[in-house]
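Known limitations

Files may contain more than one protein. Parsers should not assume a single record per file. Below, a two-record file is shown to illustrate correct handling: read the sequence, read the token line, then continue until end of file.
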Amino acid sequence: MFLRKIGIKKLEIFCLCILLISCTSTQNTPDQNEKFYDLKETPVNNSNDKVSENYTLEQKEISSSMVDSSDTNQILPDISYFATNKSDRFFVDFEDIVAAHPYVGANSPRPHNDAQVYFSNTDLRWLNATKPSDYPPIYAIADGFINMPEMGFYNVVDHSNSSPPWWHVAYVFTLKIAQSDGNFIDFIYQMEPYMIPELAGKSKDFYKQFILVENGQFVKKGDILGYMYVPSFEEMVGNKEASSHIAFSFIKQPKTVYVPAIFSEQIVKKFGEIYRNPSEGWESKSFGFDWNRARGLPDAMGWMINGDENPFNNNDLGVLLYDGIQDEKIDSKAMVHPHELGFNSEDILYQKYGWGDTLLENIIVNEDWQLLFAGIGGPMNLKFIIDENGSLRESQVFELRSGQNFSLNHKDNFIGNSSKFSISISDPDEWGWSLAFARADSEFTQPGTTRDIPPLCPPDCPPSPNPYKLKK
């Protein structure tokens, strides 16, 4: 390995500067909130980082040492090392997560500059947990050095421009694993349970006990860095579209965000399987609309990225899984096939899928029906063309606006006894579409409708301690 332990000295590290798009969105509203962290130096062994004089924490033993900042560049590999030397240690255990999405790049219908993994809020392992180590462990994905913001255990994620306004608290740190052009490359760990500790009857420093590492600490691949707190629904804030998760990406200091393409092919394929097929199904009570960012996507750590988001070269890529060169030959098309939309396969009466503008002529459905239509991204629309006494009538049924990502839409029979019609689909950017007609009595559960416990707020969230300011 490129990393080695050396003597204990002072480490001067630049603090985290993350630009992440808001982690909660609906399927119809573009992401508007962003999270900004000021670039600061994070001194080692800061004794002023406690928020409670009575707070004590028994630190778990982890292989560690401090390193002089003048030596750090010499012992961290160039980021190009990880183009072909992938990590075989994902940062969580796959059996602990229920869904995910990769880094969705600038060339996608609706970009989002991090990847995420999601946790079940109904898993009895977490509901019955009594101590931090009962919760999902978080691992070092490579040898490196911890960078811990002073208030990393109380990181306000603000949605003050939402209506009604709300906010929640995350905890965050990064792991320096590489360098590029004299700048550090950090792997970001941002844990977002969707909880305000004080509102849930906990102390402000509640999340501090879930962090096992310190600023400047050297860790080895596979070391446990902390634990992910997974709240009950009764403790959560936000809305019924929020989903407890960890956001992750690369950041080249001070603020260039890269696809976290550090993991082996085997890990990425497991990752892809869980974001296409969540382990609790799309009807999970823990479902969040952010899960839709990955629906139907191919195996990847990054999808539809531009060269500025590529950590290994300047290539625009549909898929980033390998070294940024081999990936150019991978098919980046996304698709959710008709039998995956939500109807029982035996109930489907007619189905089609494809990419681009399409006219489906003279469709015949002889039974009463309901329809599911999915689009990977906008702009896109679907129109029925119905023959009424010799004249054609068009009726627009579904529309995805430009800037909208995956959307699943349901429609009951609205044309009565007419059994013959045509459908026109406009998909100018060829993102992909899928439709299925099923019997009217076929069971279907719309994702996002099964959670029956309201959040603590909004409405009536307390004022945010760090109100988000829209850029003018």
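...continuing to the second record:
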Amino acid sequence: MRRLSELEKVEIWDRFEAGGSQRSISRRLGRSPSSIRTHLLGSGFRRPVPGPEWSALRLSLTEREEISRGLAAGESMRCIAARLGRAASTVSREVASNGGRSKYRAAGAHRASRHRARRPKPAKLAVNHQLRTVVEEKLELWWSPRQISDWLVDAYPDNEEMWVSHETIYQSLFIQGKGTLRKELWRCLRSGRATRRPQGRAKSTKGQIRDMVMISERPAEVEDRAVPGHWEGDLLMGSRQTAIGTLVERWSRYVMLFGLPQGNTAEAVRDALTETVQRLPDHLWESLTWDQGKEMANTSSSVSTPESTFTSAIRSRRGNAAPTKTPTDCYANTFPKAPTCPAQPRRAGPGRLLPQHPPSTNPRRDDTIRQTRRNVAMTT
């Protein structure tokens, strides 16, 4: 069968981006549906960018030839970069990734750059059989992708080929086309979900909390954890609308848990939180940072004192929510669950049972729990 011409390739992408199906495109061009799918799949279902239309931020072949001539003349990286109007680090990375000063060649570097930019790339778990085997074994032992990723760095400190991010593991389980791991392993995830929830959050259409103090307005001493008395709070959500409140002191990482037997409504959270913080000395209660959850709608006036402030944060930027996130993740897997009827196993939906997790075999689990519980106060 003859190859697709350039005009046919352009028409395929034009019709595909306009919403045409692969079958309708194949009928229009008189080609088999498999040929159309092979062409689309070869670039990850995204129109390939021709060389002349590549971003101006990328080095061109002419610039690479100039780098090659400069290296042959013995010029420094900074001198070559200044002549090209590029950053010295850009030229340095270009030379280092293509053989160094003695082996750099413009044509070969340009071909290698185009090859590295091709998409889709083979997944790391697809090409590394040993790594894939280790990850599958740990998933079968009910380890989370985050635990596996951290453990690999400790177990193979000198072999980066055996390192993989937790995001890569999730993509291999959830995203079609990257399923390098066995499909049934998603049942070993603690969430028990076969699909991933959207990472973004749609703008809420519900009412907003009145008189909020935003996270950007809290004092600098809270941000740098210079003095004790500044807390972060959150709710640990369970099944059947149950919840546990968590408070983490930012300076010492001291954790307090309080129960919510009356539910997680604004009134119930207000009463439980007020009772909990009243047990603290006055100098250890300066401010509280929470998210914009509606459970805090009635809390500001009831837990504040003349010396303290209640801070209602939007979404804490990276690093700010870490003290609260760590114990929440830990207790989600260690806190006693409410008893259920053994004759009626819980179901996540019609015909699908929730996974029954065996005891964890993570060798670092007990140390994590023990280290965290040293600074935990349980309140009832």
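Parsers that stop after the first record will miss the second one. For reference, the second record is described as follows. Strands lie at 230-237, 243-249, 255-259, 287-290, 309-312, 347-349, 352-353, 376-379.
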